[in-house]
Amino acid sequence: METTIEKKERLPNRSELLARKKTHAERLEQIEAQLKRLDEMEVQNAIKKSRAADTRLKILAGAFLLDSMKRCESTRTHFARLILDFHGRQTDLDFLRAHPLFFDGEKNEG
Predict the structure, then answer these.
(1) How much is the pLDDT for 7?
(2) Distance between CA atoms of 70 and 52, rounded to whole angstroms?
Protein backbone atom coordinates (compact mmCIF):
# COMPACT_ATOMS: atom_id res chain seq x y z
CA MET A 1 0.00 0.00 0.00
CA GLU A 2 1.31 3.36 -1.00
CA THR A 3 1.30 6.20 1.39
CA THR A 4 1.36 9.72 0.17
CA ILE A 5 2.76 12.43 2.20
CA GLU A 6 0.62 15.44 1.91
CA LYS A 7 2.43 18.66 1.52
CA LYS A 8 1.47 21.26 3.98
CA GLU A 9 0.37 24.36 2.22
CA ARG A 10 2.40 27.32 3.28
CA LEU A 11 0.29 29.96 4.96
CA PRO A 12 0.96 33.54 3.93
CA ASN A 13 2.63 35.68 6.50
CA ARG A 14 1.13 38.82 7.97
CA SER A 15 2.76 41.26 5.57
CA GLU A 16 1.55 39.23 2.56
CA LEU A 17 -1.98 39.23 3.93
CA LEU A 18 -1.87 42.97 4.54
CA ALA A 19 -0.61 43.56 0.99
CA ARG A 20 -3.48 41.47 -0.39
CA LYS A 21 -5.94 43.34 1.78
CA LYS A 22 -4.63 46.66 0.46
CA THR A 23 -4.84 45.42 -3.13
CA HIS A 24 -8.42 44.21 -2.62
CA ALA A 25 -9.38 47.50 -0.96
CA GLU A 26 -7.95 49.48 -3.88
CA ARG A 27 -9.79 47.27 -6.38
CA LEU A 28 -13.01 47.67 -4.40
CA GLU A 29 -12.58 51.46 -4.52
CA GLN A 30 -12.10 51.31 -8.29
CA ILE A 31 -15.21 49.18 -8.74
CA GLU A 32 -17.27 51.47 -6.52
CA ALA A 33 -16.08 54.51 -8.51
CA GLN A 34 -17.06 52.76 -11.75
CA LEU A 35 -20.50 51.95 -10.33
CA LYS A 36 -20.94 55.57 -9.27
CA ARG A 37 -20.01 56.77 -12.78
CA LEU A 38 -22.46 54.29 -14.32
CA ASP A 39 -25.24 55.49 -12.00
CA GLU A 40 -24.50 59.10 -12.95
CA MET A 41 -24.55 58.19 -16.64
CA GLU A 42 -27.92 56.44 -16.22
CA VAL A 43 -29.37 59.54 -14.56
CA GLN A 44 -27.99 61.79 -17.32
CA ASN A 45 -29.36 59.46 -20.02
CA ALA A 46 -32.79 59.46 -18.35
CA ILE A 47 -32.75 63.27 -18.22
CA LYS A 48 -31.68 63.45 -21.86
CA LYS A 49 -34.47 61.06 -22.94
CA SER A 50 -37.01 63.02 -20.93
CA ARG A 51 -35.93 66.30 -22.54
CA ALA A 52 -36.00 64.73 -25.99
CA ALA A 53 -39.53 63.43 -25.40
CA ASP A 54 -40.63 66.84 -24.11
CA THR A 55 -39.13 68.59 -27.14
CA ARG A 56 -40.77 66.12 -29.52
CA LEU A 57 -44.14 66.69 -27.85
CA LYS A 58 -43.75 70.47 -28.19
CA ILE A 59 -42.78 70.17 -31.85
CA LEU A 60 -45.71 67.89 -32.67
CA ALA A 61 -48.21 70.03 -30.75
CA GLY A 62 -46.80 73.18 -32.30
CA ALA A 63 -47.01 71.72 -35.80
CA PHE A 64 -50.62 70.76 -35.19
CA LEU A 65 -51.45 74.21 -33.86
CA LEU A 66 -49.75 76.00 -36.75
CA ASP A 67 -51.58 73.82 -39.27
CA SER A 68 -54.88 74.48 -37.50
CA MET A 69 -54.17 78.22 -37.50
CA LYS A 70 -53.46 78.18 -41.23
CA ARG A 71 -56.74 76.40 -41.97
CA CYS A 72 -59.11 78.04 -39.49
CA GLU A 73 -59.47 81.80 -39.01
CA SER A 74 -61.18 81.52 -35.63
CA THR A 75 -58.38 79.27 -34.31
CA ARG A 76 -55.79 81.72 -35.64
CA THR A 77 -57.50 84.70 -34.01
CA HIS A 78 -58.02 82.90 -30.71
CA PHE A 79 -54.42 81.71 -30.37
CA ALA A 80 -52.96 84.97 -31.61
CA ARG A 81 -54.56 86.65 -28.59
CA LEU A 82 -53.55 83.95 -26.13
CA ILE A 83 -49.96 83.73 -27.26
CA LEU A 84 -49.19 87.27 -26.11
CA ASP A 85 -50.16 86.34 -22.56
CA PHE A 86 -48.15 83.13 -22.65
CA HIS A 87 -44.82 84.50 -23.86
CA GLY A 88 -43.12 87.09 -21.75
CA ARG A 89 -39.75 87.65 -23.40
CA GLN A 90 -39.77 90.78 -25.50
CA THR A 91 -37.72 89.16 -28.28
CA ASP A 92 -40.29 86.35 -28.55
CA LEU A 93 -43.17 88.81 -28.61
CA ASP A 94 -41.48 90.92 -31.29
CA PHE A 95 -40.88 87.81 -33.41
CA LEU A 96 -44.49 86.68 -33.07
CA ARG A 97 -45.90 90.15 -33.74
CA ALA A 98 -43.89 90.29 -36.96
CA HIS A 99 -45.11 86.91 -38.20
CA PRO A 100 -48.08 87.19 -40.60
CA LEU A 101 -49.61 83.89 -39.47
CA PHE A 102 -50.21 85.28 -36.02
CA PHE A 103 -51.00 88.92 -36.57
CA ASP A 104 -51.22 89.71 -40.28
CA GLY A 105 -48.83 92.59 -39.75
CA GLU A 106 -50.92 94.15 -36.96
CA LYS A 107 -48.97 95.71 -34.14
CA ASN A 108 -50.80 94.21 -31.19
CA GLU A 109 -49.66 95.32 -27.80
CA GLY A 110 -49.52 92.85 -24.96
Answers:
(1) 63
(2) 27
